[in-house]
Design goal:
306 residues; mainly alpha; 82% helix; globular
Length: 306
Amino acid sequence: LRSRFGPFWRSFSWATARDQLAYAIPFGLAAVVMQAQLDVPHYFVSHEYGAAAYAIFAVGCFNLPVVAILAESAGSVMIPRISELQAAGRTREIAETVAGMVRKLAVAYFGLFAYLVVFGREFIVLLFTEQYAASWPVFAVNVLLIPLALVTSACDPVLRAYAEHRYFFLRARLAITAVLVTALWVGTGALGLVGTIAVVVALNALERAVVAAKVWRILGLGSGDLALFGGVARLGAAAAVAGLVAAAARAALDGTAPIVTLACGGFVFAAVYAVAIVGAGVLRPGEISLLLSRQGGPACAASRES
């Protein structure tokens, strides 16, 4: 700190601290509310159904850390970039940058989602043993949060850049959380484990739709701008094709050990998904050469792409 900022301890600006807190607190509270949305169903299920059923539900709600890692990695790059473009008034470039980021994340998110839809039961059994195989229906619904995470990754940097809208995330999440708590309070006993997680996912989808509509208006986009996200739709189709082929492979592997099914099925899925992505024309030439490059290491590959 001394080498970078000099004698920074000699002064302190309360006005700057106040401005920074006024900016950061709404986003921090929105993150807390989001975590509460994911935690609240656990309390209702454990109270309504007891420890044994709750164990099944909790395993079914297992979230893969890689999704959050990818989202946070993208956000750490996107937030300063979008803020820079917003300060320069380059709104169109913001939309194009967001669309490019979503397209790249969708390669991983859609692939992971389709793979887990097909092989989720084996995945659960391998991690938690056959005793928790009943968690698979809950897990099958819960993984819908993976593609929905794309919307948050796209919207969060924009709302952070346009600071005048910083309370929108918080208000939207508070409203959705209130609806969620009410729905679970009234209906958890009748909904069952799968119904409960379905309500959670449905309300999360509603929140993301509301936030996405807000960001769409902030950027001044219209129906013609949907073409920016055409690559995302093609990636979804590619993942669906790979999932169907992998489902056939899974049927052929019926009766094998879960790890064998996951490994062999994963190989089939990855091969078909890669071919489908290239066939869909989603990746740009520079991105394809970067992925295929092996000579000289990542630094040289990135240099060649540039």
